[in-house]
Amino acid sequence: MRGIDGRPRKAPRWEGRALGALMYPANVVVGAIAVLILSVPVVTILPATLALSRAYAAWVHEGDDAVFTNTFREFRATWRRSLPLGLGATVILAVLVVDGVFLIRELTAETPSIGLLFAAATVPLAVAAAVYFFAVAAAGAAAPDGSRRDWLALGGRLMLAMPGRSLAVAAVVVVCVLASTLLPTLAPFVLISVPAVTATGLWLTLDTTDHP
């Protein structure tokens, strides 16, 4: 930008701050779109989330804000290691969906059966599974050269090392699920991307140099 005298003129400080603030939600949205594209086969949901976490880590720690293209690049670099994890996550997701449908039917039935108690017990298990899901994805960013076993072990360690941060991730997951229930159009943009960026931001501040 140049002034009337032809000399370069710096942008106002507030303008730079405003652009920086807008970049954050923009990268969350474009990251969600990348995951949505990569998750079409369903079994690639976890590999896509892991790739997104690595792209977010590069953005936060290295200043590389090309989250959309970096997600595809990281997916290409990690899908062979993470696809078996994605298969396992898909099976767990299918079981939780069946339990969720049963729970909804029990809640809407005129005479709920004792099965409601067993179905309700799956809610905390589902939240814990979701937290571990994002912990494994964050572990993929914390240990870029790790194996599947490394990521699974480190994901558990991240959950246990800071229970307060795990609860924060769980709270974000619950809020995103409730928001998506009230406004289904939000689901593709918040269900994975917001918890992923939260988990990556919280857990990658830990010392993970001695990961399993």
Overall description:
With about 210 residues, this protein is an all-alpha fold. The protein is about 75% helix and about 0% strand. It has nine helices and no strands. Helix 1 packs antiparallel against helix 2 and helix 5 (about 120-140) crosses helix 9. It is globular.
Poorly predicted runs:
207-212
Distance between the termini: 51 Å
* Mean pLDDT rating: 84
- Binned, the helix content reads over 70%
Quick summary of this structure?
The chain is mainly α and 212 residues long. It is 76% helix and 0% strand.
Write the layout of secondary structure elements.
Elements: H1 13-38, H2 45-62, H3 67-108, H4 115-120, H5 122-142, H6 148-161, H7 163-182, H8 187-190, H9 193-203
Helix pairs in contact: 1-2, 1-3, 2-3, 2-5, 2-9, 3-5, 5-6, 5-7, 5-9, 7-9
What descriptors fit this protein?
disordered C terminus, mainly alpha, 212 residues
